Each structure stands twice: as structure tokens, then as C-alpha cells.
Structure prediction request, 132 residues.
Amino acid sequence: MSGDRDYTDFLGITSIRDGAQVWGHLPFDPALVGNATVKALHGGTLAALLGATAVLQAAESLDLATEPRVVSLTTEFLRPAAYTDTYAEASFTRLGGRVANARVVAWQAERSEPVAVANVILTLERRSHEAL
Prediction:
């Protein structure tokens, strides 16, 4: 996943731990602007944050042999993302032995006002295949 990690590093995506939960953090950078007319971040950077957050949550909370890989990412853009930091949180809707489905929500100033949500499917390589 080194290529994906390079991309998240390039975008400045980091993780914030809150107990067992991991949040993704995308700091604002003028290079991330997608539409200067409406003052919105580029949708691709939001999608990258959503996918990276699902990977970070899986890597932190599961006993995996390798980093999870994104198989599918479906993003719903709910409102323009303003010129400010963006946060995301993933929750698993299904955890199997080899596949995980996650719902990821991104927000900015108010967690109750998401700017985007995504359904992410990850492949997993577990160290142990014991039941969850």
C-alpha cells in the first residue's frame, strides 16, 4: 500500500485517535481547492479522506497481517466542503474473514452536518480467522 500511503501523505491526511476510534483528518491546503467559484474542496480529496479513514480504522482495530486494500468506494457528496479542515469517521457495517464493509462520514465545523459519506469495501488478510 505504499503508493496509497504516498498519496495520503501528499494530501496531508493524518489520523486522530479517540479511544478505540480513529478519525481521519484532512487539513485545509489551497492546493486542495476544486472549485474556487463556490469555494469548495476537490471531491477527489474528500473521497481519498473517506477511503483512507476506512483503511486506518481497519488497520487499528483488527488483527491484520497486511494493510487493508480498498476494493470499492462509493461517495455521496452532500454539500460543498468549505476551505477548512475536514474530519472523517468509519464504522463497520459488516466484518468478515476476508472482506469488510464500512460507512464513513466526513464533516467540517459540525459533526451533525456531514459534507460527504461513503460506503467502502475493503479486503482483509487476517492473522487469525477466528470468529469476531
Q: What stands out?
A: Residues 59 and 67 are 6 Å apart (CA to CA).
